[in-house]
Structure to design on (342 residues):
């Protein structure tokens, strides 16, 4: 095949041209010339070997070289491609870290590359953290988008107060890695507000001096263990809510009333049951009396046969019984009529 190309100069020239084009394209892909020219024009040393190595390792040269140019232009000349490339391979945001380094340097904030990359790899926005160090951030407590619009607490006199606070925080770069987030600060401030109001004897004192809440909450050191420093806690709004104490007393009184009614009903039922028992006992005793009275004629007859009483005694007894019945009828105390009525 090579002999055929040698014998055919036109074909050989075409192969050489195509090969040259492919070679130039490969070189252009391996070495981004425009980016290299930008680095040279900015007096940043980036070798061809470094650019080729980035391509081989799957690193975008633009993401490394241009942030490096920004850093050198800002006077941070101690960093090279190795540091930036290492952070890129660790899934870090190299341009954001570079901008954060420049912002910290201009604001005279101590922030080295190691700490900046650690903050970035921890999932925090290092540029935002630097900006918060320069310009403190105001956080609403509570966060309206995540719950109730106001913190609710009850004073010792039973009156509910609704409070909305604004917390001014500044990022603490030394504690940002491993420190708690804004949600923790908001939760702690809310807890401090509830505790401060709950310890107040009168809700009127809180309304008169809302700053007492801020002072008590600030004295607790709520920013400990967080990535922020609390500068101030300002009470933006405070409203009077329901009379929780009165509502609880009413509910307790209602519950006591229902308990008393239940006990009264229980005693009433027991009294009715006892009454029925007594009625049954009375009926039983009357039955015994009737049974005893039924034996009287037999006893009289036995006495007559035995000779213990005479006929005249028996007649006198009948007269006495008739006279007693007549008197009872006249007086309206006839036992038979009473038994009938009952």
């Amino acid at each position: 095949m090579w002999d055929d190309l040698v014998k055919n100069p036109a074909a050989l020239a075409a192969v050489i041209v195509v090969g040259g084009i492919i070679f130039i394209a490969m070189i252009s892909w391996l070495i981004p010339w425009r980016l290299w020219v930008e680095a040279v024009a900015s007096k940043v040393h980036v070798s061809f070997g470094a650019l080729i190595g980035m391509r081989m390792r799957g690193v975008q040269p633009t993401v490394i070289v241009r942030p490096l140019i920004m850093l050198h232009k800002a006077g941070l000349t101690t960093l090279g491609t190795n540091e930036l490339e290492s952070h890129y391979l660790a899934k870090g945001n190299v341009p954001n870290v570079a901008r954060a380094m420049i912002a910290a340097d201009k604001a005279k904030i101590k922030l080295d590359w190691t700490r900046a990359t650690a903050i970035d790899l921890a999932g925090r926005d290092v540029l935002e953290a630097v900006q918060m160090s320069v310009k403190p951030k105001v956080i609403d407590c509570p966060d309206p988008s995540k719950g109730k619009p106001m913190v609710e607490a009850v004073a010792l006199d039973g009156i509910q107060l609704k409070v909305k606070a604004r917390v001014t925080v500044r990022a603490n770069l030394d504690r940002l890695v491993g420190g708690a987030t804004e949600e923790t600060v908001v939760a702690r401030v809310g807890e401090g507000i509830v505790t401060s109001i709950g310890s107040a004897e009168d809700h009127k004192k809180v309304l008169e001096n809302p700053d007492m809440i801020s002072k008590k909450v600030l004295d607790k050191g709520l920013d400990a263990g967080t990535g922020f420093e609390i500068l101030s806690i300002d009470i933006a709004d405070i409203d009077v809510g329901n009379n929780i104490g009165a509502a609880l007393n009413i509910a307790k009184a209602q519950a006591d009333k229902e308990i008393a009614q239940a006990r009264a009903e229980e005693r009433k039922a027991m009294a009715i049951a006892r009454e029925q028992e007594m009625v049954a006992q009375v009926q039983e005793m009357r039955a015994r009396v009737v049974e005893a009275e039924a034996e009287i004629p037999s006893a009289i007859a036995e006495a007559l046969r035995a000779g213990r009483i005479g006929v005249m005694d028996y007649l006198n007894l009948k007269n006495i019984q008739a006279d007693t019945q007549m008197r009872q009828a006249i007086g309206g105390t006839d036992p038979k009529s009473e038994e009938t009525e009952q």
Remarks:
- The two ends are 141 Å apart (CA to CA).
- The chain has a mean pLDDT of 82.
- The CA atoms of residues 19 and 25 lie 10 Å apart.
